[in-house]
Write a structure and sequence with these properties.
The protein is an alpha/beta fold. It has ten helices and six strands.
Length: about 375
């Protein structure tokens, strides 16, 4: 484990332990005053704090799993375990929201006499302040460690503070006006809890499914590669996320056809070293497009194609242009904006226009993916 990864791991574990101990104390205190005051809402809130203990335990366990050394079955490490932890936290939040909501609905139809003691108000007030502090602390540590799991836990703690604060409103309403608004407040808060759960689940699932490369980061990496001497252009950058501390990438570059194999080898090594040093991203593959910069006929064909594509504004990029004069083949890649709903049909129009432009050649056109824009 690198020093940076070890530091990150310690932050996550320490934050998880702080959350675990805090929620254990709060759960016990809430359960006691909830039972004494016959408040189902406070008892449910205590169960909520107890579930937060499970979230903290999940955070600690997942952090250990994410930092396991690579093995034969998982050669790129176990970093994605952290995203699984985020899913677990999101699911727990959703479960609590549903459970609390059902309990609140029951209490609307079956109200009970409440018996709030001063100790109840004191405990609930302390719980609100403690949860706000815990949420801020966990969020700060989540940003410091770049941990989605801790960010999700911080959001959960914040909504816990809202739940507890609503209890103060309910206590005041019942004490001074003898109006029981506990279940109604709980339902409103449960809606926000469920919304938070869905956002967390959707975010983690999106990462696991494979999100688009971050636009700003992708452009910076491509610009860095393009500025290296010998590189005529950088395209098709693809980042593979194996956890916050492990990103593997691939990219295609254009080089002059006059470059020798040893020169290309030296260039690709330099590209890998530069990208890793600047971004801590490992380039697993560097594909090479050969462009004939000295052949006037090839240059003329290329510019002719460029001029034609100006009539197709949804084609946002052209690269990998290659002409095989002996086999009479022209090959190139184009990127069509994802905003076009019928991209396949649009692609066929471009192919037809390109064929009409070069009737004496066979065309090999690839519809590439838009990974940045």
């Amino acid at each position: 484990m690198t020093v940076e990864k070890e530091k990150r791991h310690k932050i996550i574990v320490k934050t998880g332990v702080v959350g675990l101990l805090t929620n254990l104390i709060l759960a016990a205190a809430k359960a006691f005053v909830g039972i004494m005051s016959h408040s189902i809402a406070i008892v449910v809130d205590a169960a909520n704090s107890l579930s937060d203990c499970l979230s903290s335990i999940a955070t600690i366990i997942v952090s250990h799993l994410a930092n396991k050394a690579p093995d034969k079955k998982h050669p790129l490490g176990h970093g994605r375990s952290e995203y699984m932890g985020t899913l677990i936290v999101g699911a727990i939040i959703g479960y609590i929201g549903l459970t609390a909501g059902f309990e609140a609905i029951k209490k609307i139809f079956n109200p009970s006499e409440l018996d709030y003691a001063p100790a109840t108000t004191i405990v609930v007030s302390i719980a609100v302040v403690t949860k706000v502090i815990l949420s801020a602390y966990t969020l700060a540590m989540g940003k410091k460690a770049d941990s989605d799991t801790l960010r999700a836990t911080a959001k959960d703690a914040f909504f816990d503070a809202l739940i507890s604060s609503s209890m103060l409103i309910a206590i005041a309403a019942y004490t001074f006006a003898h109006i029981n608004i506990e279940p109604y407040l709980a339902i409103v808060i449960c809606i926000f809890i469920l919304r938070s759960s869905l956002e967390i689940l959707r975010g983690a699932a999106s990462i696991l499914l494979g999100e688009r490369t971050d636009k700003a980061l992708g452009r910076r990496i491509r610009n860095t590669i393009s500025k290296i001497e010998g590189v005529e252009g950088a395209y098709d950058l693809l980042l593979h996320d194996y956890g916050p501390s492990m990103t593997v990438a691939s990219v295609n570059i254009e080089v002059a056809s006059t470059m020798t194999a040893p020169q290309i080898d030296s260039l690709t090594r330099k590209i890998r070293k530069t990208v890793y040093k600047r971004y801590q991203i490992a380039l697993a593959a560097v594909g090479v497009y050969s462009i004939n910069t000295k052949d006037e006929e090839t240059r003329s064909l290329y510019h002719k194609l460029q001029d034609m594509l100006e009539g197709y504004p949804e084609v946002i990029e052209l690269h990998g242009f290659h002409v095989d004069k002996e086999e009479k083949i022209i090959s190139f890649d184009i990127i069509i904006d994802f905003a076009i709903k019928k991209r396949a049909e649009y692609f066929e129009k471009v192919k037809k226009a390109s064929k009409n432009l070069f009737p004496e050649y066979d065309l090999e056109i690839t519809l590439d993916s838009d990974l940045l824009d």
